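FW: tagging you since you asked about this chain on Friday. Here's the raw sequence from the shared folder, copied in full. Didn't touch anything.
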Amino acid sequence: MGYYSDVFGYNSGMDKIEDKIFKSFSAIKGNVSNNFSDVWQSEKHFTAHIEKRIKLNHISNKDDYIKKTLECLANSNEFIFAEHSNSWDNICYNSAKDWAVIFNEHGKVMTSYKIESDSTDFMQKQKSINAKIKKGITDEKFRKFFNSIRN
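HL: got it, structure written out here
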């Protein structure tokens, strides 16, 4: 059973988001650290996000951020898919321990961050803006894929 077995795509004929995530990360060539911005929605957002996380003392540097992001994905046990009326707003949330990663509908990372006890719950936030929520279990294929990138 696949990672997103209950999610059939955003519009008819579109690939499942898992396939898009794999495709996005598989495109990283060479050194993951040097090319990690390629899996982000934009290099500009990636750079700004790294700076923000350093200022918040959530990470020590870019490599620490990449390590925590990949570790989260390799250890994820469940996902939350937030389906919105406009398919381009659909997002997927994975978490493990105290870290989360959110993907957009193209399988690109929108954000990856430390989950803090006082932060708004992802699912509740998405429900408050009328998203349909689908939860599922992350399969072994997904975890193995991200473990292979980490090593």
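FW: Confidence is low (pLDDT under 50) at residues 1-15.
HL: agreed, and Residues 17-150 form one domain.
FW: great, closing this out.
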